[in-house]
Protein backbone atom coordinates (compact mmCIF):
# COMPACT_ATOMS: atom_id res chain seq x y z
CA UNK A 1 0.00 0.00 0.00
CA UNK A 2 1.41 3.44 -0.94
CA UNK A 3 2.03 5.91 1.84
CA UNK A 4 1.63 9.67 1.95
CA UNK A 5 4.59 11.78 3.11
CA UNK A 6 2.99 11.94 6.57
CA UNK A 7 2.98 8.15 6.73
CA UNK A 8 -0.83 8.05 6.47
CA UNK A 9 -2.41 5.96 3.75
CA UNK A 10 -4.23 7.37 0.76
CA UNK A 11 -7.98 7.25 1.60
CA UNK A 12 -8.82 5.56 -1.69
CA UNK A 13 -6.68 2.63 -0.66
CA UNK A 14 -8.38 1.89 2.66
CA UNK A 15 -9.62 -1.66 2.87
CA UNK A 16 -9.83 -4.69 0.58
CA UNK A 17 -10.53 -4.04 -3.09
CA UNK A 18 -12.70 -6.15 -5.39
CA UNK A 19 -9.77 -8.31 -6.54
CA UNK A 20 -8.96 -9.19 -2.92
CA UNK A 21 -12.62 -9.85 -2.08
CA UNK A 22 -12.95 -12.13 -5.09
CA UNK A 23 -10.05 -14.29 -3.96
CA UNK A 24 -10.05 -14.14 -0.15
CA UNK A 25 -10.25 -17.61 1.45
CA UNK A 26 -13.42 -18.32 3.46
CA UNK A 27 -14.24 -20.82 6.20
CA UNK A 28 -17.69 -21.46 4.70
CA UNK A 29 -18.80 -24.19 2.32
CA UNK A 30 -19.13 -23.03 -1.28
CA UNK A 31 -22.92 -23.50 -1.28
CA UNK A 32 -23.66 -22.26 2.25
CA UNK A 33 -26.06 -19.58 0.94
CA UNK A 34 -27.36 -21.34 -2.16
CA UNK A 35 -31.01 -20.48 -2.85
CA UNK A 36 -31.00 -17.44 -0.54
CA UNK A 37 -31.44 -13.80 -1.47
CA UNK A 38 -29.64 -11.16 0.57
CA UNK A 39 -30.19 -7.40 0.56
CA UNK A 40 -27.18 -5.36 1.67
CA UNK A 41 -27.63 -1.67 2.38
CA UNK A 42 -24.37 0.23 2.03
CA UNK A 43 -23.55 -2.61 -0.36
CA UNK A 44 -21.06 -0.57 -2.37
CA UNK A 45 -19.22 0.62 0.74
CA UNK A 46 -16.44 -1.18 2.58
CA UNK A 47 -18.15 -3.63 4.96
CA UNK A 48 -21.32 -4.05 2.90
CA UNK A 49 -19.32 -4.77 -0.22
CA UNK A 50 -17.25 -7.46 1.50
CA UNK A 51 -20.41 -9.08 2.86
CA UNK A 52 -21.97 -8.98 -0.59
CA UNK A 53 -18.90 -10.58 -2.16
CA UNK A 54 -18.76 -13.32 0.48
CA UNK A 55 -22.45 -14.22 0.40
CA UNK A 56 -22.48 -14.02 -3.41
CA UNK A 57 -19.51 -16.36 -3.57
CA UNK A 58 -21.38 -18.72 -1.21
CA UNK A 59 -24.27 -18.93 -3.66
CA UNK A 60 -26.62 -16.13 -2.57
CA UNK A 61 -28.44 -13.82 -4.93
CA UNK A 62 -27.34 -10.38 -3.78
CA UNK A 63 -29.04 -6.99 -3.99
CA UNK A 64 -26.81 -4.00 -3.27
CA UNK A 65 -28.51 -0.81 -2.09
CA UNK A 66 -27.13 2.68 -1.51
CA UNK A 67 -27.58 6.28 -2.58
CA UNK A 68 -24.91 6.44 -5.26
CA UNK A 69 -25.86 4.61 -8.48
CA UNK A 70 -22.37 4.88 -9.92
CA UNK A 71 -20.76 3.25 -6.87
CA UNK A 72 -23.38 0.51 -6.92
CA UNK A 73 -22.80 -0.16 -10.61
CA UNK A 74 -19.04 -0.39 -10.04
CA UNK A 75 -19.57 -3.03 -7.36
CA UNK A 76 -22.12 -4.92 -9.47
CA UNK A 77 -19.85 -5.00 -12.50
CA UNK A 78 -16.93 -6.36 -10.48
CA UNK A 79 -19.04 -9.10 -8.89
CA UNK A 80 -20.90 -10.01 -12.07
CA UNK A 81 -17.54 -10.45 -13.83
CA UNK A 82 -16.92 -13.30 -11.36
CA UNK A 83 -20.25 -14.91 -12.24
CA UNK A 84 -22.14 -13.72 -9.16
CA UNK A 85 -25.85 -12.85 -9.27
CA UNK A 86 -26.00 -9.19 -8.28
CA UNK A 87 -28.68 -6.53 -8.65
CA UNK A 88 -28.55 -2.92 -7.49
CA UNK A 89 -31.11 -0.44 -6.20
CA UNK A 90 -30.80 3.20 -5.26
CA UNK A 91 -32.26 4.04 -1.85
CA UNK A 92 -31.99 6.68 0.82
CA UNK A 93 -32.66 4.72 3.99
CA UNK A 94 -33.74 7.93 5.77
CA UNK A 95 -36.80 8.20 3.52
CA UNK A 96 -39.57 5.67 4.31
CA UNK A 97 -41.01 6.06 0.79
CA UNK A 98 -37.63 5.30 -0.74
CA UNK A 99 -37.30 2.21 1.46
CA UNK A 100 -40.83 1.06 0.56
CA UNK A 101 -40.02 1.45 -3.14
CA UNK A 102 -36.82 -0.57 -2.64
CA UNK A 103 -38.70 -3.46 -1.05
CA UNK A 104 -41.41 -3.39 -3.71
CA UNK A 105 -38.74 -3.59 -6.38
CA UNK A 106 -36.86 -6.38 -4.63
CA UNK A 107 -40.11 -8.36 -4.33
CA UNK A 108 -40.89 -7.88 -8.01
CA UNK A 109 -37.43 -8.48 -9.42
CA UNK A 110 -35.80 -10.89 -6.97
CA UNK A 111 -38.82 -12.61 -5.39
CA UNK A 112 -38.15 -11.07 -1.97
CA UNK A 113 -35.24 -11.63 0.39
CA UNK A 114 -34.20 -14.05 3.13
CA UNK A 115 -31.65 -11.86 4.85
CA UNK A 116 -31.03 -8.15 5.33
CA UNK A 117 -27.67 -6.67 6.22
CA UNK A 118 -27.96 -3.04 7.33
CA UNK A 119 -24.49 -1.69 6.64
CA UNK A 120 -25.56 1.76 5.40
CA UNK A 121 -24.53 4.34 7.93
CA UNK A 122 -21.87 6.71 9.04
CA UNK A 123 -21.07 9.86 10.95
CA UNK A 124 -18.55 12.66 11.14
CA UNK A 125 -16.04 13.15 13.96
CA UNK A 126 -16.72 16.19 16.12
CA UNK A 127 -16.68 17.18 19.79
CA UNK A 128 -20.27 16.70 20.96
CA UNK A 129 -20.37 20.16 22.49
CA UNK A 130 -20.03 21.57 18.96
CA UNK A 131 -22.73 19.44 17.28
CA UNK A 132 -25.23 21.52 15.33
CA UNK A 133 -28.87 20.47 15.49
CA UNK A 134 -28.71 19.56 11.80
CA UNK A 135 -25.56 17.48 12.24
CA UNK A 136 -27.05 15.59 15.20
CA UNK A 137 -30.30 14.99 13.34
CA UNK A 138 -28.47 13.79 10.24
CA UNK A 139 -26.56 11.14 12.13
CA UNK A 140 -29.57 9.99 14.17
CA UNK A 141 -31.74 9.97 11.08
CA UNK A 142 -29.24 7.95 9.08
CA UNK A 143 -28.21 5.39 11.65
CA UNK A 144 -31.26 4.94 13.87
CA UNK A 145 -34.25 5.99 11.79
CA UNK A 146 -32.80 4.66 8.53
CA UNK A 147 -32.00 1.28 10.03
CA UNK A 148 -35.48 1.13 11.55
CA UNK A 149 -37.16 1.89 8.22
CA UNK A 150 -35.23 -0.98 6.63
CA UNK A 151 -36.01 -3.39 9.46
CA UNK A 152 -39.72 -2.61 9.47
CA UNK A 153 -40.01 -2.91 5.69
CA UNK A 154 -38.21 -6.26 5.74
CA UNK A 155 -40.41 -7.58 8.57
CA UNK A 156 -43.60 -6.49 6.82
CA UNK A 157 -42.51 -8.27 3.63
CA UNK A 158 -41.65 -11.46 5.53
CA UNK A 159 -44.90 -11.37 7.50
CA UNK A 160 -46.98 -10.84 4.37
CA UNK A 161 -45.18 -13.64 2.51
CA UNK A 162 -45.22 -16.02 5.49
CA UNK A 163 -41.46 -16.27 5.06
CA UNK A 164 -38.70 -16.48 7.67
CA UNK A 165 -36.04 -13.83 7.76
CA UNK A 166 -32.86 -12.69 9.39
CA UNK A 167 -31.44 -9.21 9.97
CA UNK A 168 -27.86 -8.22 10.77
CA UNK A 169 -27.39 -4.61 11.83
CA UNK A 170 -23.89 -3.18 11.65
CA UNK A 171 -23.42 -0.82 14.60
CA UNK A 172 -20.37 0.49 16.51
CA UNK A 173 -18.84 -0.32 19.89
CA UNK A 174 -21.10 1.65 22.21
CA UNK A 175 -19.87 0.71 25.66
CA UNK A 176 -16.17 1.45 25.78
CA UNK A 177 -13.46 3.66 24.38
CA UNK A 178 -14.86 5.24 21.19
CA UNK A 179 -14.59 9.04 21.36
CA UNK A 180 -15.64 11.98 19.19
CA UNK A 181 -18.72 10.36 17.69
CA UNK A 182 -21.29 10.63 20.50
CA UNK A 183 -24.13 11.12 18.01
CA UNK A 184 -23.47 7.78 16.37
CA UNK A 185 -23.07 6.03 19.72
CA UNK A 186 -26.50 7.33 20.69
CA UNK A 187 -27.97 6.15 17.39
CA UNK A 188 -26.32 2.73 17.50
CA UNK A 189 -27.24 2.17 21.16
CA UNK A 190 -30.76 2.80 19.93
CA UNK A 191 -30.35 0.22 17.18
CA UNK A 192 -29.03 -2.34 19.69
CA UNK A 193 -31.97 -1.77 22.04
CA UNK A 194 -34.39 -1.87 19.15
CA UNK A 195 -32.85 -5.10 17.87
CA UNK A 196 -33.13 -6.75 21.28
CA UNK A 197 -36.76 -5.69 21.64
CA UNK A 198 -37.64 -6.89 18.16
CA UNK A 199 -35.73 -10.16 18.54
CA UNK A 200 -38.48 -11.03 21.03
CA UNK A 201 -41.42 -9.26 19.38
CA UNK A 202 -40.71 -10.68 15.92
CA UNK A 203 -39.68 -14.20 17.02
CA UNK A 204 -43.26 -15.41 16.33
CA UNK A 205 -42.72 -14.24 12.74
CA UNK A 206 -39.58 -16.42 12.52
CA UNK A 207 -37.38 -13.35 12.21
CA UNK A 208 -33.97 -13.30 13.86
CA UNK A 209 -32.19 -10.01 14.55
CA UNK A 210 -28.58 -9.56 15.56
CA UNK A 211 -25.98 -6.79 15.59
CA UNK A 212 -22.31 -6.71 14.76
CA UNK A 213 -20.17 -4.04 16.42
CA UNK A 214 -17.01 -3.64 14.37
CA UNK A 215 -13.90 -2.06 15.79
CA UNK A 216 -11.41 -0.33 13.53
CA UNK A 217 -12.07 -1.84 10.10
CA UNK A 218 -10.19 -0.37 7.16
CA UNK A 219 -12.71 0.96 4.66
CA UNK A 220 -13.18 3.96 2.34
CA UNK A 221 -15.41 5.35 5.10
CA UNK A 222 -12.23 6.29 6.93
CA UNK A 223 -11.70 9.20 4.56
CA UNK A 224 -13.61 11.49 6.94
CA UNK A 225 -11.10 10.90 9.75
CA UNK A 226 -7.88 12.83 10.35
CA UNK A 227 -4.84 10.85 9.13
CA UNK A 228 -3.29 11.26 12.57
CA UNK A 229 -6.34 9.60 14.15
CA UNK A 230 -6.25 6.82 11.56
CA UNK A 231 -2.56 6.20 12.20
CA UNK A 232 -3.39 5.49 15.87
CA UNK A 233 -6.26 3.05 15.14
CA UNK A 234 -4.10 -0.10 15.24
CA UNK A 235 -3.23 0.69 18.86
CA UNK A 236 -6.89 1.03 19.87
CA UNK A 237 -7.42 -2.62 20.79
CA UNK A 238 -5.49 -5.36 22.58
CA UNK A 239 -4.76 -7.13 19.31
CA UNK A 240 -2.89 -4.00 18.17
CA UNK A 241 -4.12 -4.05 14.58
CA UNK A 242 -6.89 -2.91 12.28
CA UNK A 243 -9.56 -5.38 11.25
CA UNK A 244 -10.55 -6.26 7.71
CA UNK A 245 -13.90 -6.09 6.02
CA UNK A 246 -13.64 -9.82 5.39
CA UNK A 247 -13.58 -10.50 9.11
CA UNK A 248 -16.86 -8.62 9.48
CA UNK A 249 -18.31 -10.32 6.39
CA UNK A 250 -17.64 -13.78 7.83
CA UNK A 251 -19.37 -12.72 11.04
CA UNK A 252 -22.37 -11.58 8.98
CA UNK A 253 -22.50 -14.99 7.32
CA UNK A 254 -22.47 -16.69 10.72
CA UNK A 255 -25.07 -14.52 12.47
CA UNK A 256 -27.38 -14.04 9.51
CA UNK A 257 -27.15 -17.50 7.99
CA UNK A 258 -27.98 -21.07 8.93
CA UNK A 259 -25.02 -21.41 11.33
CA UNK A 260 -26.62 -18.75 13.55
CA UNK A 261 -30.07 -20.31 13.42
CA UNK A 262 -30.50 -20.33 17.23
CA UNK A 263 -28.95 -16.89 17.80
CA UNK A 264 -31.10 -13.79 18.11
CA UNK A 265 -30.90 -10.50 20.02
CA UNK A 266 -27.11 -10.77 20.17
CA UNK A 267 -24.36 -8.18 19.70
CA UNK A 268 -21.16 -9.68 18.31
CA UNK A 269 -18.07 -7.51 18.64
CA UNK A 270 -15.65 -7.93 15.76
CA UNK A 271 -13.34 -5.43 17.31
CA UNK A 272 -10.10 -7.07 18.41
CA UNK A 273 -11.24 -6.67 22.04
CA UNK A 274 -11.65 -2.89 21.86
CA UNK A 275 -14.96 -3.26 23.68
CA UNK A 276 -12.83 -4.19 26.72
CA UNK A 277 -9.52 -2.34 26.39
CA UNK A 278 -8.12 0.60 24.49
CA UNK A 279 -9.36 3.92 23.21
CA UNK A 280 -10.23 5.19 19.75
CA UNK A 281 -10.03 8.96 19.36
CA UNK A 282 -11.62 10.23 16.16
CA UNK A 283 -11.00 13.81 17.26
CA UNK A 284 -7.88 15.14 18.94
CA UNK A 285 -7.39 13.60 22.36
CA UNK A 286 -7.81 16.31 25.02
CA UNK A 287 -4.73 17.04 27.14
CA UNK A 288 -6.84 16.09 30.17
CA UNK A 289 -6.52 12.41 29.19
CA UNK A 290 -2.82 12.47 28.38
CA UNK A 291 -0.69 10.87 31.05
C1 LIG B 1 -12.60 3.54 13.02
C2 LIG B 1 -13.20 3.95 14.25
C3 LIG B 1 -13.82 5.23 14.08
C4 LIG B 1 -15.20 5.37 14.47
C5 LIG B 1 -16.02 4.19 14.22
C6 LIG B 1 -16.81 4.30 13.01
C7 LIG B 1 -16.20 4.35 11.80
C8 LIG B 1 -17.02 4.41 10.63
O1 LIG B 1 -18.20 4.30 10.72
S1 LIG B 1 -16.21 4.61 9.16
C9 LIG B 1 -17.37 4.29 7.92
C10 LIG B 1 -18.66 5.04 7.92
N1 LIG B 1 -18.79 5.94 6.83
C11 LIG B 1 -18.93 7.24 7.02
O2 LIG B 1 -18.96 7.71 8.14
C12 LIG B 1 -19.11 8.02 5.79
C13 LIG B 1 -18.82 9.42 5.94
N2 LIG B 1 -19.84 10.21 6.63
C14 LIG B 1 -20.86 10.82 6.00
O3 LIG B 1 -21.12 10.62 4.82
C15 LIG B 1 -21.65 11.82 6.79
O4 LIG B 1 -20.94 12.08 7.94
C16 LIG B 1 -23.10 11.44 7.15
C17 LIG B 1 -23.19 10.05 7.70
C18 LIG B 1 -23.60 12.39 8.18
C19 LIG B 1 -24.02 11.56 5.95
O5 LIG B 1 -23.92 12.76 5.41
P1 LIG B 1 -24.95 13.41 4.37
O6 LIG B 1 -26.28 12.88 4.46
O7 LIG B 1 -24.32 13.37 3.03
O8 LIG B 1 -25.02 14.80 4.98
P2 LIG B 1 -24.12 16.03 4.77
O9 LIG B 1 -22.72 15.67 4.47
O10 LIG B 1 -24.85 16.90 3.82
O11 LIG B 1 -24.15 16.68 6.22
C20 LIG B 1 -25.37 17.02 6.86
C21 LIG B 1 -25.08 17.86 8.07
O12 LIG B 1 -24.28 17.09 8.98
C22 LIG B 1 -23.31 17.99 9.58
N3 LIG B 1 -21.95 17.57 9.20
C23 LIG B 1 -21.60 16.74 8.21
N4 LIG B 1 -20.27 16.59 8.18
C24 LIG B 1 -19.76 17.34 9.17
C25 LIG B 1 -18.45 17.59 9.68
N5 LIG B 1 -17.37 16.99 9.14
N6 LIG B 1 -18.32 18.40 10.73
C26 LIG B 1 -19.38 19.01 11.30
N7 LIG B 1 -20.67 18.80 10.88
C27 LIG B 1 -20.85 18.00 9.85
C28 LIG B 1 -23.63 19.37 9.07
O13 LIG B 1 -24.59 19.97 9.91
C29 LIG B 1 -24.25 19.07 7.73
O14 LIG B 1 -25.08 20.06 7.23
P3 LIG B 1 -24.44 21.31 6.44
O15 LIG B 1 -23.62 22.05 7.43
O16 LIG B 1 -25.63 22.09 5.96
O17 LIG B 1 -23.60 20.73 5.33
N1 LIG C 1 -15.11 1.05 9.11
C1 LIG C 1 -15.11 1.06 10.43
O1 LIG C 1 -14.06 1.15 11.08
C2 LIG C 1 -16.40 0.95 11.14
C3 LIG C 1 -17.62 1.01 10.51
N2 LIG C 1 -18.77 0.92 11.23
C4 LIG C 1 -20.08 1.00 10.59
O2 LIG C 1 -20.23 0.00 9.62
C5 LIG C 1 -21.11 0.44 8.59
C6 LIG C 1 -20.42 0.33 7.25
O3 LIG C 1 -19.27 1.14 7.30
P1 LIG C 1 -18.14 1.18 6.18
O4 LIG C 1 -18.36 0.12 5.21
O5 LIG C 1 -16.87 1.31 6.90
O6 LIG C 1 -18.47 2.60 5.56
P2 LIG C 1 -18.63 3.10 4.07
O7 LIG C 1 -18.70 4.57 4.15
O8 LIG C 1 -17.58 2.47 3.22
O9 LIG C 1 -20.03 2.49 3.64
C7 LIG C 1 -21.23 2.98 4.15
C8 LIG C 1 -22.21 2.99 3.05
O10 LIG C 1 -23.46 3.45 3.56
C9 LIG C 1 -24.16 4.05 2.51
N3 LIG C 1 -25.08 5.05 3.03
C10 LIG C 1 -24.82 6.09 3.88
N4 LIG C 1 -25.92 6.79 4.12
C11 LIG C 1 -26.91 6.21 3.41
C12 LIG C 1 -28.28 6.49 3.24
N5 LIG C 1 -28.87 7.52 3.85
N6 LIG C 1 -29.01 5.67 2.43
C13 LIG C 1 -28.43 4.63 1.81
N7 LIG C 1 -27.14 4.32 1.93
C14 LIG C 1 -26.38 5.09 2.72
C15 LIG C 1 -23.10 4.70 1.62
O11 LIG C 1 -23.45 4.49 0.28
P3 LIG C 1 -23.81 5.73 -0.69
O12 LIG C 1 -22.67 6.66 -0.60
O13 LIG C 1 -24.01 5.09 -2.00
O14 LIG C 1 -25.07 6.26 -0.13
C16 LIG C 1 -21.83 3.91 1.92
O15 LIG C 1 -21.40 3.14 0.80
C17 LIG C 1 -21.48 1.87 8.94
O16 LIG C 1 -22.68 1.89 9.68
C18 LIG C 1 -20.31 2.28 9.82
O17 LIG C 1 -20.60 3.38 10.63
C19 LIG C 1 -18.75 0.74 12.58
C20 LIG C 1 -17.58 0.67 13.25
C21 LIG C 1 -16.32 0.80 12.59
Please tell me about this protein's structure:
- There is one protein chain.
- With 291 residues, the chain is of the alpha/beta class.
- The protein has a single domain, classed as Rossmann fold.
- Helix content is 38%, strand content 14%.
- It has eight helices and nine strands.
- It has helices at residues 18-23, 46-57, 69-80, 96-110, 133-161, 182-201, 227-232, 245-256, and strands at 37-41, 61-66, 86-90, 115-118, 165-170, 178-179, 207-214, 267-270, 280-281.
- A seven-stranded parallel sheet has the order 3-2-1-4-5-7-8, with helices on both faces. It has a two-stranded parallel sheet with strand order 6-9.
- The longest helix is centred in the middle third of the chain and has 29 residues, at 133-161.
- The chain is globular, with a radius of gyration of 18 Å.
- Mean pLDDT is 95; it is low at 1-11.
- The structure holds ligand LGGBLMCM and NADPH dihydro-nicotinamide-adenine-dinucleotide phosphate.
- Residues 41-42, 44-48, 66-68, 71, 91-94, 119-122, 142, 146, 170, 172, 214, 216-217, 219-221 line the site of NADPH dihydro-nicotinamide-adenine-dinucleotide phosphate (NDP).
Amino acid sequence: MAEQESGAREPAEFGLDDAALAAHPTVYAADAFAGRTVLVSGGAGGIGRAAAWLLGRLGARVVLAGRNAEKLEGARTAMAAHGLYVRTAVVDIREPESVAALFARVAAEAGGIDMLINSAGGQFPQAAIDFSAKGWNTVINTNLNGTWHMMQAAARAWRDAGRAGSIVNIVVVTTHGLHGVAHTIAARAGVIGLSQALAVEWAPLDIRINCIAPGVIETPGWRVYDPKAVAAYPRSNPMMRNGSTWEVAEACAYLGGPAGGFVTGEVLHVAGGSQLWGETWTIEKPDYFRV
